[in-house]
Amino acid sequence: MLGITGYGVYLLSSILINLTPGTDTMFIISRSVSQGRKAGIYSVLGISTGVFIHTLFAAFGLSIILAESIVLFTAIKFIGAGYLIYLGIKMVFQKTSLHIDSTPEQEVELKKIYWQGVITNVTNPKVALFFISFLPQFVLTDHHFGPVPFLILGISFIITGTIWCFIVAYFASTATKQLRENTKISKLLNKLTGIVFVCLGVTLLKAKAAS
After folding, report:
1. What's the pLDDT score for residue 86?
2. Does the CA dihedral 189-93-38-121 come out positive or negative?
3. CA distance 35 to 123
4. Residues 6+ apart with CB under 8 A from 17
5. Contact assessment for residue 10 and residue 156, using Cβ atoms and an 8 Å cutoff
6. pTM, whole model, 2 decimals?
7. Cβ distance 43 to 115 under 8 Å?
8. Whole-number Å distance between alpha carbons of 27 and 18
9. Sign of CA dihedral 15, 19, 20, 26
10. Alpha-carbon gap, residue 177 to 59, rounded angstroms
C-alpha cells in the first residue's frame, strides 16, 4: 500500500508505544491535573502538532541530519531541556492558581499551553531519532512514492496517539477536579507540576545521540 509494508503490525506497535508513558504523556497529565481539562486538551493538540512536524522532518530527510550531527543534537537537547526547566521553575514560583476557568483571559492562556506543547515536543531530539529508526522498518526500500509512506505512517501514529492522549487528559482532569477547586491545593498542584517539568528537563539532558 503506497510503499508501506506490515501496516497492521505498525498500527499495533504504534498503539503500544503510545500507551507507554513518556515525556509527552507526563506533560499532558501534569497540565490536566493542575489546570483542568481544557489545558489538557490544548496540551494534546500541541504535542500532536509537534509530532506532525517530526513526521515532516522524517519524511523529507531532515531528521537524518539531526541524527548525524552531535552538535545539532546537543543544541536542540539543551534548548528543549532548558525550556522545560524554565516552565517548571515558573510554575513553582507562581503565586496565583493557574487553573483555567471561564474567564476572558483563558483563550490567551490556552494558546500559550498549546505552543508550549509544540515546543517541548519539537525540541525533543529523542522523538526525531525515534521516527527515523521506527518508520523506515515499514517502508519498502524500492517504493516510488517519495515521502508519502512516511507521511501516512506518521499521521497514523498521530491519530492513535491523539485519541489516547485525549483519554488521558479527560481522566486526569476529571479525577482531580475537586482538588483544583480548593485554592490551596490548586496552588500545590501547580508547584508539583513545575517540579515534574524540571525533572523532565533534567531527564532530557541525559539523552544521547545515536551512535
Report:
1. 87
2. negative
3. 23
4. 134, 157
5. yes
6. 0.78
7. no
8. 14
9. positive
10. 41
Q: What pLDDT shows up at residue 105?
A: 60
d(CA 132, CA 128): 6
Which triple of cell numbers denotes residue 53?
Answer: 512536524
Helix (H, G, I), strand (E, B) or coil at 58: helix
Query: Over the stretch 122-171, which tens digit does the pLDDT of each residue have?
Result: 988 888 888 877 888 888 866 677 788 889 999 999 999 999 999 999 99
| Residue 170, burial from CB neighbour count under 10 angstroms (0-12, 13-18, 19+) | middle
Q: Cβ contacts of residue 166 below 8 Å, gap of 6+? A: 41, 44
Phi-psi region of 2 (alpha: psi -120 to 50; beta: other; left: phi over 0): left
pLDDT for the residue numbered 181: 67
Query: DSSP string spanning 134-176?
Result: HGGGGB-TT---TTHHHHHHHHHHHHHHHHHHHHHHHHHHHHT
Q: What pLDDT shows up at residue 48?
A: 95
Question: How many residues does this entry show for the chain?
Answer: 211
pLDDT along the chain (211 residues), means of 10: 85 87 86 88 95 89 73 81 86 66 66 92 85 82 76 93 94 82 73 83 74 49
